[in-house]
């Protein structure tokens, strides 16, 4: 009996290192995490996530390494996730183009709801309608009345065909039965340069216009968000003016399909805390971005509804591929 007990003890002792190794391997994270940002470095969409990555690194005990992969209308992060293991070591920034591009481009084979894991919704983007300071329209209704009186005369700019900025303004136009010409630009900076240069009459763009509005170069007619922008409390929302269009353009964090819920929780907790750190909140205020936190399941449910709404809108605008 003693010999059996000793043998069992020896076997148990010899197995302990392997048990310890298994436990160590099961801990998450035990190596650096890649965070793919599908934009060039230095822009507002990049800067906020870099701030959160630094804070989340401390909370996770492993470095969150930012990797910029720009191009392809901002879907390079989602594409990278299709090839990555669902172990939580490759994650990406989520934004509306990830949802919309598969509807616009038949060559994209991923499904934006079923082929991704939604980790955390974090923030949104303020978008608005701006004109030059010397424009004859002081309010959005005045400008829309002019557009209605002179069909086809007005030219306006926004980021690319099918962008959130483009679709937001098209929705307003549809509510009024307007006919005008959209000029697509590669970025907000290009759109605003065109506006200042007189190439277009107005722009529907994200808050890159804020410094020019504050400097008196541009006039902000309205914002598309549900609430007024903090730095522009006197500027009404589009909905306040009677046009039923609200665009918060939420963004957050996603991973590969099939991630372990426990790993999702670890990441969500770290980035939720990071999003509420003073440095990140200060950044959001400087960009007029709201903090709109939602956990993964709720985020996924909202995006599933939005996906169907986007499909219907694109069909109405004849932007869905044949």
At a glance:
This protein has 322 residues and is α/β, with parallel strands linked by helices.
Care to describe what's here?
The protein is of the alpha/beta class. The chain has 2 domains: 30-124 and 250-316, Bordetella uptake gene, domain 1 (D-Maltodextrin-Binding Protein, domain 2), CATH 3.40.190.150; 127-223, Periplasmic binding protein-like II (D-Maltodextrin-Binding Protein, domain 2, 3-Layer(aba) Sandwich), CATH 3.40.190. Helices cover 44% and strands 19% of the residues. It has 11 helices and 11 strands. The protein has helices at residues 2-26, 44-60, 76-83, 96-104, 140-149, 164-176, 188-196, 210-214, 261-275, 278-286, 296-316; strands spanning 33-37, 64-68, 90-94, 116-123, 127-132, 155-159, 181-185, 202-206, 218-223, 251-256, 291-295. The strands form 2 sheets. The chain has a 6-stranded mixed beta sheet, sandwiched between helices. 37% of the residues are buried.
Oligomer: single chain
The CATH superfamily of the largest domain bears the name: Bordetella uptake gene, domain 1
Portion of residues in helices? Answer: 40-55%
Percent of residues in beta strands? 15-25%
Q: For the residues shown, what is the average pLDDT?
A: 90
N-to-C span: 79 Å
Structural features:
single chain; D-Maltodextrin-Binding Protein, domain 2; alpha/beta; disordered N terminus; 11 helices; 322 residues; five-stranded mixed beta sheet; globular; 2 domains; 19% strand; six-stranded mixed beta sheet
């Amino acid at each position: 009996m003693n010999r059996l007990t000793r043998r069992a003890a020896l076997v148990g002792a010899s197995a302990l290192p392997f048990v310890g190794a298994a436990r160590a391997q099961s801990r998450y994270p035990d190596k650096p995490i890649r965070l793919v940002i599908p934009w060039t470095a230095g822009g507002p969409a990049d800067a906020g996530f870099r701030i959160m990555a630094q804070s989340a690194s401390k909370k996770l005990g492993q470095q969150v390494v930012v990797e910029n992969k720009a191009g392809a209308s901002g879907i390079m992060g989602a594409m990278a996730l299709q090839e990555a293991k669902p172990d939580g070591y490759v994650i990406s920034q989520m934004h509306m183009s990830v949802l919309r591009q598969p509807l616009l481009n038949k060559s994209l084979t991923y499904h934006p709801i079923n082929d991704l894991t939604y980790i955390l919704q974090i923030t949104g983007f303020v978008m608005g309608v701006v004109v030059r300071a010397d424009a004859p329209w002081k309010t959005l209704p005045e400008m829309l009345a002019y557009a209605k009186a002179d069909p086809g005369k007005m030219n306006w700019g926004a980021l690319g065909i099918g962008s959130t900025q483009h679709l937001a303004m098209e929705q307003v136009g549809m509510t009024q039965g307007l006919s005008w010409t959209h000029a697509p630009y590669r970025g907000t900076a290009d759109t605003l340069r065109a506006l200042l240069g007189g190439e277009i009459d107005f722009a529907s763009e994200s808050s890159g216009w804020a410094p020019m509005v504050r400097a008196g170069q541009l006039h902000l007619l309205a914002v598309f968000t549900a609430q007024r922008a903090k730095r522009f409390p006197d500027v009404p929302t589009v909905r306040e003016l009677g046009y039923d269009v609200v665009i918060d353009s939420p963004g957050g964090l996603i991973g590969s399909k099939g991630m372990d819920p426990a790993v999702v929780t670890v990441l969500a907790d770290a980035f939720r805390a990071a999003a509420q750190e003073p440095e990140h909140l200060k950044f959001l205020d400087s960009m007029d971005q709201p903090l709109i936190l939602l956990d993964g399941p709720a985020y996924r449910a909202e995006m599933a509804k939005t996906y169907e709404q986007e499909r219907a809108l694109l069909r109405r605008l004849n932007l869905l591929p044949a």
